[in-house]
From TrEMBL:
Gene Ontology CC annotation, any one: membrane
Superkingdom of the organism of origin: Bacteria
Claim: DNA-binding is one of the keywords in the record: no
Stretches assigned to the AB hydrolase-1 domain: 16-241
Gene expressing this chain: pcaD
Name by which UniProt lists this protein: 3-oxoadipate enol-lactonase
Family annotation (Pfam families): Abhydrolase_6
UniProt xrefs under InterPro entries: AB_hydrolase_1, AB_hydrolase_fold, AB_hydrolase_sf
Single GO molecular function: hydrolase activity
Coiled-coil portions: none
PANTHER family, A to Z: AB HYDROLASE SUPERFAMILY PROTEIN YCLE, MONOACYLGLYCEROL LIPASE
Keywords recorded for this protein, A-Z: Hydrolase
Length: 250
Protein backbone atom coordinates (compact mmCIF):
# COMPACT_ATOMS: atom_id res chain seq x y z
CA UNK A 1 0.00 0.00 0.00
CA UNK A 2 1.30 3.47 -0.91
CA UNK A 3 0.86 5.88 1.98
CA UNK A 4 -1.09 9.05 1.26
CA UNK A 5 1.29 11.97 1.52
CA UNK A 6 2.19 15.54 0.62
CA UNK A 7 5.52 16.47 -0.95
CA UNK A 8 6.90 19.82 -2.07
CA UNK A 9 10.21 21.50 -2.71
CA UNK A 10 13.00 21.10 -5.28
CA UNK A 11 13.90 17.52 -6.15
CA UNK A 12 17.57 18.25 -5.52
CA UNK A 13 17.01 19.89 -2.12
CA UNK A 14 17.78 18.07 1.16
CA UNK A 15 14.70 16.10 2.17
CA UNK A 16 12.86 16.30 5.48
CA UNK A 17 10.33 13.54 6.20
CA UNK A 18 7.69 14.14 8.88
CA UNK A 19 5.90 11.31 10.72
CA UNK A 20 2.78 12.04 12.75
CA UNK A 21 1.52 11.16 16.21
CA UNK A 22 -1.25 8.58 16.70
CA UNK A 23 -3.43 11.43 17.99
CA UNK A 24 -3.06 13.18 14.64
CA UNK A 25 -2.29 12.66 10.96
CA UNK A 26 -0.05 14.44 8.48
CA UNK A 27 -2.05 17.64 8.92
CA UNK A 28 -0.27 18.15 12.25
CA UNK A 29 2.80 19.39 10.35
CA UNK A 30 1.07 22.33 8.64
CA UNK A 31 2.74 24.87 10.98
CA UNK A 32 6.17 23.53 9.96
CA UNK A 33 5.47 23.05 6.25
CA UNK A 34 6.12 26.52 4.83
CA UNK A 35 9.02 27.37 7.18
CA UNK A 36 10.80 24.20 6.06
CA UNK A 37 10.20 25.00 2.39
CA UNK A 38 11.38 28.58 2.93
CA UNK A 39 14.55 27.20 4.52
CA UNK A 40 15.34 25.30 1.32
CA UNK A 41 14.20 21.79 2.18
CA UNK A 42 12.14 19.31 0.21
CA UNK A 43 9.36 18.28 2.59
CA UNK A 44 7.42 15.00 2.72
CA UNK A 45 4.66 14.23 5.24
CA UNK A 46 2.80 10.92 5.29
CA UNK A 47 -0.37 9.41 6.71
CA UNK A 48 0.31 6.01 8.27
CA UNK A 49 -2.13 3.19 7.55
CA UNK A 50 -5.44 3.87 9.27
CA UNK A 51 -4.83 7.61 9.65
CA UNK A 52 -5.90 10.62 7.62
CA UNK A 53 -6.34 9.66 3.96
CA UNK A 54 -4.56 6.29 4.10
CA UNK A 55 -6.95 3.32 4.46
CA UNK A 56 -6.73 0.97 7.41
CA UNK A 57 -4.49 -2.06 6.85
CA UNK A 58 -6.05 -5.29 5.61
CA UNK A 59 -3.02 -7.40 6.49
CA UNK A 60 0.07 -7.27 8.66
CA UNK A 61 2.10 -4.16 7.84
CA UNK A 62 5.37 -2.39 8.61
CA UNK A 63 5.20 1.39 9.11
CA UNK A 64 8.93 1.96 8.70
CA UNK A 65 9.10 -0.14 5.54
CA UNK A 66 6.12 1.81 4.17
CA UNK A 67 8.10 5.03 4.57
CA UNK A 68 11.18 3.52 2.92
CA UNK A 69 9.03 2.37 -0.03
CA UNK A 70 7.77 5.93 -0.47
CA UNK A 71 11.31 7.33 -0.40
CA UNK A 72 12.41 4.76 -2.95
CA UNK A 73 9.51 5.69 -5.22
CA UNK A 74 10.74 9.30 -5.28
CA UNK A 75 14.40 8.30 -5.54
CA UNK A 76 15.19 9.97 -2.23
CA UNK A 77 18.29 8.62 -0.52
CA UNK A 78 19.35 10.01 2.84
CA UNK A 79 16.86 12.21 4.70
CA UNK A 80 16.33 14.22 7.82
CA UNK A 81 13.57 12.46 9.74
CA UNK A 82 11.21 14.05 12.25
CA UNK A 83 8.64 12.13 14.24
CA UNK A 84 6.12 12.91 16.97
CA UNK A 85 5.00 10.31 19.53
CA UNK A 86 4.14 7.17 17.52
CA UNK A 87 5.80 8.80 14.52
CA UNK A 88 8.87 9.28 16.67
CA UNK A 89 8.90 5.58 17.44
CA UNK A 90 8.66 4.73 13.75
CA UNK A 91 11.41 7.29 13.07
CA UNK A 92 13.96 5.84 15.47
CA UNK A 93 13.11 2.27 14.43
CA UNK A 94 13.63 3.25 10.78
CA UNK A 95 16.92 4.99 11.65
CA UNK A 96 18.12 1.86 13.43
CA UNK A 97 17.13 -0.51 10.62
CA UNK A 98 18.34 1.67 7.74
CA UNK A 99 21.03 3.89 9.33
CA UNK A 100 22.42 4.95 5.96
CA UNK A 101 19.05 6.50 5.04
CA UNK A 102 18.83 8.93 7.99
CA UNK A 103 21.37 11.70 8.49
CA UNK A 104 19.45 13.75 11.06
CA UNK A 105 16.77 12.57 13.49
CA UNK A 106 14.36 14.73 15.52
CA UNK A 107 12.19 12.92 18.07
CA UNK A 108 9.34 14.96 19.57
CA UNK A 109 7.89 13.29 22.67
CA UNK A 110 8.57 9.96 20.99
CA UNK A 111 7.17 6.57 21.92
CA UNK A 112 9.33 3.47 22.39
CA UNK A 113 8.07 -0.05 21.87
CA UNK A 114 8.18 -2.18 25.04
CA UNK A 115 9.01 0.64 27.45
CA UNK A 116 7.46 -0.05 30.88
CA UNK A 117 4.22 1.94 31.28
CA UNK A 118 3.68 4.38 34.14
CA UNK A 119 0.43 4.45 36.18
CA UNK A 120 -0.59 7.66 34.38
CA UNK A 121 -0.37 6.18 30.88
CA UNK A 122 -2.09 2.98 32.04
CA UNK A 123 -4.95 5.06 33.44
CA UNK A 124 -5.24 6.97 30.17
CA UNK A 125 -5.26 3.77 28.08
CA UNK A 126 -7.84 2.12 30.33
CA UNK A 127 -10.11 5.17 30.13
CA UNK A 128 -9.81 5.39 26.35
CA UNK A 129 -10.56 1.68 25.94
CA UNK A 130 -13.62 1.92 28.18
CA UNK A 131 -15.01 4.91 26.29
CA UNK A 132 -14.51 3.29 22.87
CA UNK A 133 -16.03 0.01 24.05
CA UNK A 134 -19.06 2.01 25.21
CA UNK A 135 -19.27 3.69 21.80
CA UNK A 136 -18.59 7.16 23.21
CA UNK A 137 -16.22 8.43 20.53
CA UNK A 138 -16.85 12.07 21.48
CA UNK A 139 -15.61 11.46 25.01
CA UNK A 140 -12.62 9.47 23.75
CA UNK A 141 -11.66 12.34 21.45
CA UNK A 142 -11.96 14.83 24.31
CA UNK A 143 -9.86 12.58 26.55
CA UNK A 144 -7.04 12.59 23.98
CA UNK A 145 -7.20 16.34 23.45
CA UNK A 146 -7.21 17.03 27.20
CA UNK A 147 -4.37 14.57 27.86
CA UNK A 148 -1.98 15.41 25.06
CA UNK A 149 -2.21 19.17 24.51
CA UNK A 150 -0.27 21.49 26.77
CA UNK A 151 -1.29 24.87 28.17
CA UNK A 152 -0.20 26.91 25.14
CA UNK A 153 -2.60 25.14 22.77
CA UNK A 154 -5.27 27.46 21.45
CA UNK A 155 -8.94 26.57 21.04
CA UNK A 156 -8.31 26.34 17.29
CA UNK A 157 -5.47 23.87 17.86
CA UNK A 158 -7.67 21.79 20.15
CA UNK A 159 -10.31 21.67 17.42
CA UNK A 160 -7.72 20.64 14.83
CA UNK A 161 -6.40 17.81 16.99
CA UNK A 162 -9.95 16.69 17.79
CA UNK A 163 -10.73 16.48 14.08
CA UNK A 164 -7.61 14.43 13.37
CA UNK A 165 -8.21 12.08 16.31
CA UNK A 166 -11.86 11.63 15.35
CA UNK A 167 -10.82 10.73 11.80
CA UNK A 168 -8.43 8.08 13.13
CA UNK A 169 -11.13 6.56 15.32
CA UNK A 170 -13.61 6.51 12.42
CA UNK A 171 -11.19 4.73 10.10
CA UNK A 172 -9.84 2.28 12.65
CA UNK A 173 -13.11 1.35 14.39
CA UNK A 174 -14.68 0.48 11.03
CA UNK A 175 -11.84 -1.91 10.13
CA UNK A 176 -10.56 -5.24 11.38
CA UNK A 177 -7.86 -5.14 14.04
CA UNK A 178 -4.60 -5.86 12.20
CA UNK A 179 -1.25 -5.85 13.96
CA UNK A 180 1.87 -4.16 12.66
CA UNK A 181 5.13 -6.03 12.23
CA UNK A 182 7.41 -5.79 15.27
CA UNK A 183 11.06 -5.78 14.27
CA UNK A 184 13.66 -5.85 17.03
CA UNK A 185 15.87 -2.78 16.81
CA UNK A 186 18.78 -1.45 18.83
CA UNK A 187 18.95 2.27 19.56
CA UNK A 188 22.73 1.92 19.52
CA UNK A 189 22.54 1.15 15.78
CA UNK A 190 21.41 4.71 15.01
CA UNK A 191 24.12 6.80 13.39
CA UNK A 192 22.04 9.93 12.71
CA UNK A 193 22.71 13.18 14.51
CA UNK A 194 19.79 13.08 16.95
CA UNK A 195 17.71 15.60 18.92
CA UNK A 196 15.32 14.28 21.56
CA UNK A 197 12.62 16.74 22.68
CA UNK A 198 10.37 16.34 25.71
CA UNK A 199 7.59 18.47 27.21
CA UNK A 200 7.26 19.32 30.90
CA UNK A 201 3.46 19.05 30.68
CA UNK A 202 3.47 15.69 28.89
CA UNK A 203 2.47 12.38 30.48
CA UNK A 204 5.43 11.16 32.55
CA UNK A 205 5.71 8.02 30.41
CA UNK A 206 7.09 10.06 27.52
CA UNK A 207 9.54 11.93 29.72
CA UNK A 208 10.94 8.59 30.85
CA UNK A 209 11.29 7.52 27.23
CA UNK A 210 13.06 10.76 26.32
CA UNK A 211 15.66 10.08 29.00
CA UNK A 212 16.19 6.55 27.72
CA UNK A 213 16.45 7.62 24.07
CA UNK A 214 19.02 10.25 25.01
CA UNK A 215 21.06 7.73 26.95
CA UNK A 216 20.96 4.94 24.37
CA UNK A 217 21.19 6.73 21.01
CA UNK A 218 24.87 7.54 20.40
CA UNK A 219 25.55 11.26 20.74
CA UNK A 220 21.88 12.21 21.17
CA UNK A 221 21.10 15.68 22.49
CA UNK A 222 18.08 16.28 24.76
CA UNK A 223 16.04 19.47 24.94
CA UNK A 224 13.29 19.74 27.57
CA UNK A 225 10.60 22.33 26.83
CA UNK A 226 9.15 23.79 30.02
CA UNK A 227 6.08 25.07 28.17
CA UNK A 228 5.16 21.99 26.14
CA UNK A 229 2.79 19.08 26.42
CA UNK A 230 2.88 16.10 24.08
CA UNK A 231 2.48 17.96 20.78
CA UNK A 232 4.81 20.98 20.87
CA UNK A 233 4.86 21.42 17.07
CA UNK A 234 1.15 22.29 17.28
CA UNK A 235 1.00 23.92 20.70
CA UNK A 236 3.47 26.72 19.94
CA UNK A 237 4.99 26.54 16.45
CA UNK A 238 6.67 29.93 16.88
CA UNK A 239 8.69 28.49 19.75
CA UNK A 240 9.29 25.03 18.28
CA UNK A 241 10.13 25.90 14.66
CA UNK A 242 13.43 27.76 15.32
CA UNK A 243 14.64 24.81 17.40
CA UNK A 244 13.72 22.40 14.62
CA UNK A 245 15.25 24.48 11.84
CA UNK A 246 18.47 25.16 13.74
CA UNK A 247 19.02 21.46 14.35
CA UNK A 248 18.20 20.48 10.77
CA UNK A 249 20.65 23.05 9.44
CA UNK A 250 23.36 21.59 11.67
Amino acid sequence: MLLDHDIDGPADAPAVVLLHSSVCDRRMWQPQWQPLLDAGFRVLAVDFRGFGDTPAPAETYDNAADVIALLDMYGIGQVSLGGASMGGRVAHELAARWPDRVGTLVLLCAALRGHPPTPAIIAFSDSEDALLEAGDVDAAVKLNVDTFLGPRATDETREQVAAMQRRAFEVQLAADDVASVQVDTELSAITARTLVVSGAHDVDFFGDIAARLTAEIPGARHTALDWAGHLPSLEDPAALNPLLLDFLRG
